[in-house]
Design a protein that fits this description.
It comes from Hyunsoonleella aquatilis. The protein is α+β, with helices and mostly antiparallel strands. It has nine helices and 34 strands.
Length: 656
């Protein structure tokens, strides 16, 4: 038999490189995640807590309806992904198209249970660069995304090597909320069935099951008593001592004997996607993790929208104080060729027209639109069409109002569109009002660590510029309110800081329609820094006595992401010139010996007070009682004293 030396050498080399690849894949198994869960990202997550709880309850309701109601189908929310495949400079190699499609399909199988589906937006962007392909480090992210980044979608980069620190090869990492929308994946891990789903879990706020710190043992207890505050802050994932290939065997059994602070032995879930278990073992999210994914998408990620294929709507009216409302919907979707509207939240298609009309009776309604799209590069509907869906939360609000006053600090809000208020992405370009507690979600813009006088975190509404298009418009509309006195006004606090703040307009809705710019519009940054306090704006209502009105706040997005606009403490107040009147008596004026009294002439009504300077900066607040108010912390001067019973507010000037 003739010996073929060349063939033998080739076979040896193939076996060598195969073994190297296998060893490399094993090295990257399970624990090779570079996502950093910082204290800042945890603070941002906590600021969304009320909204997340609300949407988690909505998720549970949808699950129950789907289980017990035949024919009730929950539409999937379509989430766009921009795939960037990095290759060597010669343009050869890189992740194959079939591997990419397999990775997206694997994601969709897992995330369908969270009512999400992912689709590729505008084809694939190929990046031919040896440096990014052979030696990508997280420090290179800014350079990479400067030329290769699509705003408003999840940008996933597939490359040959991913490192956070030199020599520490990883499967990938995800940016968390407050940073640009980026996931970077090592090609070897793209199709192992769990790593991409793991990083996408981080993108939707999930932490590792062993908690945010990879270097210390979790403080979550095995008995679950602190499951909502420690570990991953999710209670149906067992406490995890940090799994790895060293304490999970090939049968996916945990072999460790670590105990927690109580002396109880850990019994972790070795199959959880967000653990550091073996990749071959990780197959599922827990029910509460799925609820959290859904809730975080609804609370913080609904701005995601493909520029050429998306679902978006608007309407001629969104709310009324009457018991009936006829709404004319307008489809703003890109690339759509067919439409299915569920306009009354019952899971049944009501219309297949592009722009239907519907008459609503009393209630609040989610509106879901499902469209079929053809991308601009598609050849035929049969080969390249997609079905995309999106649900717009409490999009229509009819009646259900028994109080026609305005006095809102948003402390009781879980979502912006509550208590008769309506937040709208008016232009359909990814710009909308969100709710925040204390912390700004983007560096370099918005109020920083906004707090009340007592030190607790302040709640405010803000228009989030990140992910939206320049010139996009977002409106925030009040419930109806009655103006009973000529000396009435609407007061509101506002914060506009950033290098690219756009415009802020205040409009008034009367029986004749909207009056735009009832006060002069504000343009550009109005604060010097994020730490600056809110300023106060005033709308004089003297000309609208005995009318029913609405106030509309209209934000126009600036040219870049660092242009958030925030509002707070919106109130209808009547200015009483006398310091004593039929409602309250304030004495002595000027205040003497650092003491001030407020006498409430209706002891059955609980009232609160707020003392601020003439610019609206708050110094004191509390509940009106017979006890004296200590104003020793105030400097000499003139102040505004606001007194409210929860429905109406009066304003008096005081002197110290």
């Amino acid at each position: 038999m003739k010996f073929n030396l060349k063939l033998s050498i080739l076979m040896v080399l193939m076996m060598f490189f195969s073994s190297i690849s296998t060893l490399h894949a094993q090295h990257l198994d399970g624990s090779s995640c570079g996502t950093d869960t910082s204290s800042e990202s945890i603070s941002i997550l906590n600021s969304y807590k009320a909204q997340i709880n609300s949407f988690e309850n909505e998720f549970a309701s949808l699950k129950a309806q789907a289980k017990h109601s035949k024919g009730f189908g929950v539409p999937l929310n379509s989430v766009p992904v921009k795939a960037h495949i990095i290759r060597p400079s010669d343009g050869n190699g890189g992740l194959s198209l079939s591997s990419l499609n397999e990775a997206i399909n694997d994601l969709n199988v897992l995330y369908a249970e969270a009512y999400l589906e992912f689709f590729l937006c505008d084809g694939i962007n190929y990046i031919n660069d040896d440096a990014f392909y052979y030696n990508y480090e997280k420090d290179n992210e800014d350079t990479l995304t400067e030329e290769h980044f699509t705003p408003g979608v999840i940008n996933i980069y597939f490359t040959n090597s991913v490192e956070i620190t030199p020599g520490n090869s990883l499967c990938g990492y995800s940016n968390t909320y407050g940073d640009i929308d980026v996931i970077v994946m090592n090609n070897i891990c793209a199709n192992n069935g769990s790593s991409l789903a793991h990083e996408m879990g981080h993108f939707f706020s999930l932490m590792h099951t062993h908690g945010p710190d990879n270097k210390v043992l979790t403080t979550e207890l095995v008995n679950g008593s602190n499951c909502d505050t420690d570990g991953d802050m999710i209670c149906d994932t067992p406490a995890d001592p940090k799994l790895s290939i060293h304490n999970v065997d090939s049968s996916c059994e945990y072999t460790g004997d670590i105990i927690d602070a109580n002396g109880d032995k850990f019994t972790p879930d070795t199959g959880n996607i967000m653990s550091y278990s073996r990749s071959s073992c990780k197959t599922h999210f827990s029910p509460q993790q799925l609820a959290r994914i859904y809730a975080f998408y609804k609370a913080a990620r609904t701005y995601l929208s493909c520029p050429t294929e998306n679902v978006n709507i608007t309407a001629d009216v969104f709310s009324t104080c009457e018991d009936e409302l006829t709404v004319n919907f307008t489809d703003l979707s890109e690339g759509a060729i067919s439409w299915e509207w569920d306009v009354d939240s019952d899971g049944v298609v009501d219309y297949t027209d592009q722009n239907p009309s519907h008459t609503f009776t009393t209630g609040n309604y989610d509106v879901t639109l499902t469209v079929t799209t053809i991308p601009p590069y598609g050849k035929s509907a049969s080969k390249s069409s997609k079905t995309l869906s999106k649900t717009f939360h409490q999009f229509i609000q009819v009646g259900m109002q028994d109080d026609f006053s305005i006095n809102e600090d948003f402390d009781e809000f879980e979502l912006p569109s509550e208590h008769g208020w309506t937040a709208n992405n008016t232009s359909g370009k990814g710009y909308n009002w969100l709710i925040s507690r204390g912390v700004s979600h983007s560096k370099g813009t918005g109020p920083k660590n906004s707090k009340k006088v007592d030190g607790s975190l302040n709640t405010y509404i803000y228009a989030e510029a990140s992910g939206a298009e320049p010139g996009a418009v977002a409106t925030y509309i009040s419930p109806c309110f009655n103006v009973e006195y000529a000396n009435s006004e609407i007061a509101f606090d506002y914060h506009m800081f950033g290098n690219h703040v756009g415009e802020f307009h205040v409009d008034l809705f009367t029986k004749d329609g909207y009056i735009n710019d009832i006060i002069p519009a504000l343009n550009g940054s109005q604060q010097v820094s994020s730490d600056d306090p809110f300023k106060t704006g005033i709308v004089n209502l003297a000309s609208y006595t005995n009318q029913t009105l609405k106030i509309r706040f209209r934000a126009v997005r600036g040219s870049s992401w660092d242009g958030d606009i925030a509002i707070d403490n919106i109130s209808l107040r009547t200015i009483y010139v006398p310091i004593s009147d039929e409602l309250y008596t304030v004495y002595p004026v000027p205040a003497r010996d650092n003491i001030l009294y407020i006498k409430n002439h209706d002891p059955e009504t609980v009232s609160t007070y707020r003392i601020s300077n003439l610019m609206g900066q708050e110094f004191l607040r509390g509940t009106v009682t017979d006890r004296p108010i200590n104003v020793s912390t105030l400097s000499s001067g003139t102040y505004l004293l606001s007194i409210s019973d929860g429905k109406t507010q009066v304003l008096k000037k005081i002197v110290k």
